[in-house]
Write a structure and sequence with these properties.
This is Lipocalin-like domain-containing protein. This protein has an eight-stranded antiparallel beta barrel with strand order 1-2-8-7-6-5-4-3. By secondary structure, the chain is mainly β. 12% of the residues are buried. The protein has one domain (22-133). The protein contains two helices and eight strands, in the order H-H-E-E-E-E-E-E-E-E. It has helices at 2-16, 26-29; strands spanning 31-39, 42-48, 57-60, 65-71, 82-93, 96-103, 106-117, 121-133.
């Protein structure tokens, strides 16, 4: 009887999990995204016509390049100073992307899970971070 229960529990668990395809539609994904909020380690961005030099942002381009607006240095006390850097991005699975860029710390690789994407909002969760010091 116990063996039957141990077999049934994983099956019930698998069928009770909700699957959501977070694969980005290229038309939705490409373009400028301005940082909006951070909720439970989920970075939320809103779609914009252009990047702002007064806020964090990402611009994903069809040729797998990107522009990133970030802090110039490590100090996040006002007044904040931003810079625009270029980098590259790649889709590593249906719902994950890898972005590579440089900042004041060195070469950075951020691996994100795409929690949600639509025409107006992009929600990302950082799942891996690698830095190569200068």
């Amino acid at each position: 009887m116990k063996n039957w229960i141990y077999t049934l529990l994983p099956v019930i668990f698998l069928f009770s999990c909700e699957y959501k395809n977070n694969k980005p539609d290229k038309e939705e994904f490409f373009g400028s995204w301005i940082y909006d909020t951070d909720d439970e380690q989920i970075e939320k961005y809103v779609k914009s016509d252009t990047l702002s030099m007064n806020n964090f942002g990402l611009n994903f381009k069809p040729d797998n390049t990107l522009e990133r607006v970030q802090l110039i240095g490590g100090c996040a006390t006002p007044p904040l100073e931003f810079e625009k850097v270029t980098g590259i991005w790649s889709q590593t699975s249906d719902s994950t992307i890898l972005i590579k860029y440089n900042d004041w710390r060195g070469s950075i690789k951020d691996h994100y899970w795409i929690k949600n994407i639509n025409n107006n909002q992009l929600s990302l969760k950082l799942i891996d971070y690698q830095r190569t010091k200068r």
